[in-house]
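Onboarding guide, step 5: your first structure request.
Type a short instruction followed by the sequence, for example:

Predict the 3D structure of this protein.
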Amino acid sequence: MKKITLTLLLLAGLSNYNYGQVNSNPGSWNWSNPLAWSGGFVPVSGEVVNIGNNSTITVDFPLTHDATININGGFLQSVLPANSLTLNGADLNLIGFSSILNFLGSGGGATPVTINDGHLTNGGVFMSGDLTIDYNLTSGSSSNNGDFMVQGDFTITGVETFDNNLAMNVSSQLLLGENCTWNNNQNANVGSILNDGDIVNVYAISVTDSIYNSVYGTLLSSLSTVSTGTNVINYGSYTISDSLSVGNNFVNYGTFVNNQGGVSIANDFYNYAAISGTLNGKFDIANYSLNDLTGSLTGDIDVCDATLAVGDHLDDDPGYMNNDFNTVDFCSISFASIDEKEGLVVRVFPNPTNNVLNIQADVNFTAELVDLNGAVIFGLTDENTSHMLNLSNLENGVYFLKTFTHEASSVQQIVKLD
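The system replies with structure tokens like these:
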């Protein structure tokens, strides 16, 4: 009789078990505890997991899972950074505002989440450490329609599209791969942006540090606001028809188009490639500007003061400035350092350099070497026709050499390499 009763109880438990997927039981449990799961079986890697109402499941080991995890009114958490979540060929879905994934933890740091060849659909509250979505298949996309917080880097690679439709916060870098797209349709706060893909912004992006748009990157921003704490460095294609606020320097090596937008630059503006605009796009430059010999300015852009002439306030080398460019000037002449490159020819070599930088001119000059944040690294105050700088102690990167005489000035990009 006891054996029959035990068999009946076991069969009753199995009757609630759906092979191919596992449902959570109400209560608070570790993932590895059989009592957490209907039927008493801990999910194996290939089984779909459903975490329902009144269930709190704690990931208590580094979890790799090869099937979709659905959080439908339940709570999935990790409290230790080592107990990460990796999904392979599977999706992570948070269904409804009462669904929560909290991997911010209480054991010394946030826990990473990695999704390989799958997607994230967030309709609830998603909180994690570093988040990576690497999708290399043929169709589909990830989306945020709830609360979204990444305490670390958010990396999107492969051929993934990510649609942000509600609140989004990334404390460190947003890294977008070459064939990926980020559609920002709501407020987004990020530490910095490194873009090799396509960014389409129709709302507001606030960047604590810098935006770097690579030669592969396309950035289209309309009906919205983009603000940065430090620099915008553009090597790719960047088009705005809204407002762009740059906390320090704006450097263009690519194509920048300002259509009806307002660009506010707190410090310096450097153009080494192509800037154009239509329909009264505006630039508001607080300090210094340079249009290099290789740079071109075309279109109809008003920079603060329509009464000032182009040649007075931006380098106007014959053959490089299109005179159809309506007005180029500063919002405040009193803070403008006017670049008259003609008459001051400075030669620097070798460039790039890993050690010594030689600077020569036909007239006596002084010089400053500044970093991308505008900080002076070296200042040469003695007037001479040649100077030599030892850059061996500098970090690799891009710097700017500013040279001055009593009548003229010039700025050149310097690249430091090992």
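Each response can be followed by summary notes, for example: Residues 2-15 form the longest helix (14 residues).
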